Amino acid sequence: MTKRLITPQSEKVFFFLNACLLLESSLNSLFHKQASPLPDHLSLSYFPFEHFICLFFFSLRSLLFCRSRKKVMAEEGTELSDKQKKEIAKWFLLNAPAGEIQYVAKDLKSVLNNDDVYDEAASEAFPVYNKSHMICLEMPGRFGDVLVTSYGELQGNEYLDPKTAQVAIVDHVKQVCTEVRPATDEELPTPYVEEYRCALEAELLKYVGEAYPKGSCSVYCINGKDVEGPGYDFELVAVISAARLSPQNFCTGSWRSIWNIECKDDIQVLELKGKLQVGAHYFEEGNVQLDAKHECRDSTMFQSPDDSAIAIASLIRHHETEYLASLEVVFNVWLISIPCASYRYLLTVEA
Amino acid sequence: MEAAMGLMRRMPPRHSETALSALLSLLPHNSSDLLSQVDLPLQVLSDDDSGKRFILCEYNRDADSYRSPWSNKYHPRLEDAPYPSSKLRQLEIEANDIFTVYCDQYYEGGISSVYMWEDDNEGFVACFLVKKDGSKTGQGRRGYLEEGTWDAIHVIEVGPEEETTRYCLTSTVMLSLTTDDVSSGTFSLSGSIRRQMNMNLPVADGHLCNMGKMIEEMEGKLRNSLDQACLLLCSFELPLHVYFGKTREMVCTLRPPSEVLPMRLPDNGVVHVP
Among B30, B33, B51, B171, whose CB has the most other CB atoms within 10 angstroms? Predict the structure, then answer.
């Protein structure tokens, strides 16, 4: 028995790709028609929507390809435009697991075989990736490490390190810190806010040092940086980022938590809002990824800087520890649910 | 092509369909290679003649129709379609019956299908497929999960019939688990692994017996290495699958699990507002 050699799927793919690309390009041209009379800086504002449309068709394409089984013959030939290629390249870069973007970039470069498109995609995707993964870079000149986060972002590629009051200039694509300069007074909070920020940072550094091997943390003031004394609200953000990368063992893992701390002066309350995210990737003889997210809230009394810091740090410790425990419970539930020889194993356990 | 497979190894498995279609659009000339090397979640179709469902794959497809292992008919109907020889079809029927029982034991239900076809060098190829839905809405007997599917593909190439026949098994397992819980957030674990195993076995024992042994051993192997990995893992009674164990180990080493035990509420006059 010989199977028919033609693979109708590939023809279908071409057809649907072509159909979608036609739609996409007509939409794109629509955008450009609208955008062209506008000055350059305004036409930029169309970009996110256009991006969304592209992604929408992109997912539609995959949907059609997977669900539809109608046999349609179509001609090959419609090449993707550079813009579409760039969007696809960005999608790959942004979906890279923690710490693996350089490997993805290397593979992507050879798949694309077009350095201009790659460079453009990389210059747009790397900053977003670095900030969302809160990567940790070493600053030149014994200043320690700086976390690349949107909370510490100043203009250009400059990121504030509140711990050392230095500003790191970052090369996103190479993922290195190239230069360091001292922060100006405007970039730093007032002594009153700094006292709270610094006390919390000290407490959290203690906690992170105990709980996370290779973890780093930073505390930023994102609102009310210029508050001079009691009577006004301000807001701090504490971020914790820990990564364990061992590509030689085919696994990577990352922990990210972001804690917004609103200091409400009028009601003397500190309100905490936490976002925790865990990811892990195992890729020997396959590709297995874990992705877990959690949000939580809590509050405590507004006290002196030192007491507030201790209270916040213990709340963070409590919530993160509890979350880790619930993660273990979920693993246990999964484990029972995973079939494949579990039957026999359960029998031996019961025996 | 190598780079494309490298990308597929790193993209989130739950987006593998999007990733594949992106690669297809970037590399139209490698489309058949890509389609044959990337495994997507299995699809199921209902066989009206037998009232049973069967699994769709590349091995029971011709043009746009799929052959049901239960009625041996193509869905939708197809003229001039290839069928296995009557001898092989007999083996296929037997294999389907046995594999259904096997799945009921090991997988506590699920949909199974076995397909066989002759290959070019006087041997044949058998493909054992299982699709198990363990989610709340699925047919699984344990409905803990929001979403929980498990697809297994075992392809065995059987060499020409001699005293001892060469069996070459390639197993792929695809898994997707999601838990969504207000108190603990969302967790998702998804992925696929592929392993190979070769054996020379006496044909006197029968092909089905030999193939069954290999599949059982393959699954046992995974379980064994799992127990090994378990010693390294946190102190848990029930071990996870080795690969899933590894991903958990990663999470645990990010934060040593000893942290879990001394869970102490803050004792410095903190006011808790739930």
Answer: B171
> Do both B177 and B49 map to the same domain?
yes
| C-alpha span between A33 and B154 (Å, rounded) | 53
Domain that holds residue B119: 41-201
Fill in the DSSP letter of residue B108: S
Contacts of B191 in chain A (CB under 8 A): 282, 286-289
| Terminal Cα-to-Cα distance of chain A (whole angstroms) | 48
Class of domain A189-337: alpha beta
**How many CB atoms neighbour CB A130 within 10 A?**
21
- DSSP labels, A255-288: EEEEEEEEEETTTTEEEEEEEEEEEEEE-TTEEE
Question: Is B23 found in the same domain as B4?
Answer: yes
Q: Please name the fold of domain A8-129.
A: Ribosomal protein S3 C-terminal domain (3.30.1140)
CA distance A150 to chain B (A): 23
Same domain, residue pair B22 and B53: no
- Give the number of other CB atoms < 10 A from CB of residue A156: 8
Higher pLDDT, B250 or A327: A327
Q: Do A335 and B223 touch (CB under 8 A)?
A: no
User: For residue B263, is pLDDT > 60?
Assistant: no
**pLDDT confidence bin for A278, thresholds 50/70/90:** confident
Q: Which residues of A touch B234 (CB under 8 A)?
A: 328
B22 with B106, same domain: the answer is no
pLDDT (tens digit, 9 = 90+) per residue, B179-204? 777 666 787 878 787 888 999 999 88
Q: Tell whether A206 is within 8 A of chain B (Cβ).
A: no
**Looking at residue A300, what DSSP letter applies?**
E
The confidence score (pLDDT) of residue B151 equals: 84
Give pLDDT, residue B216.
Answer: 84
A260 bridge partner residues: A237, A273
CA distance A257 to A320: 9
**How far apart are the CA of B147 and the nearest CA of chain A, in angstroms?**
11
Q: What is the ipTM metric for this complex?
A: 0.74
Contact A332, B238 (CB under 8 A): yes
Residues A180 and A141 sit within 8 Å (Cβ to Cβ): yes
Task: Examine the pLDDT at B62 and tell me if it is beyond 90.
Answer: no
Tens digits of residue pLDDT in B93-123? 999 999 998 888 777 778 899 999 988 878 8
| Closest chain B C-alpha to A220 CA, distance in angstroms | 23
Contacts of A107 in chain B (CB under 8 A): 3-4, 6-7, 10
Residues in A touching B183 (Cβ below 8 Å):
326
- Helix, strand, coil shares of chain A as percentages rounded to 5? 50, 25, 25
Instruction: Please indicate whether, in this complex, the C-beta atoms of A62 and B17 are within 8 angstroms of each other.
Output: yes
Predicted local confidence at residue B31, as pLDDT: 86
Are A291 and A315 within 8 A, CB to CB?
no
Q: B32 forms bridges with which residues in the sheet? A: none
Q: For B156, phi and psi rounded to 5 degrees?
A: -115, 120
The percent of residues in chain A predicted with pLDDT above 70, rounded, is: 70
CA distance B151 to chain A (A): 10
Q: pLDDT (tens digit, 9 = 90+) per residue, B120-173?
A: 878 899 999 988 876 665 554 444 566 777 788 899 999 887 888 899 999 888
Choose one of B151, B179, B201: the last residue of a domain: B201
How many domains would you assign to chain B?
2
Query: Measured between beta carbons, which residues in chain B are less than 8 angstroms from residue A84?
Result: 25
Predicted confidence band at B64 (pLDDT cuts at 50, 70, 90)?
confident
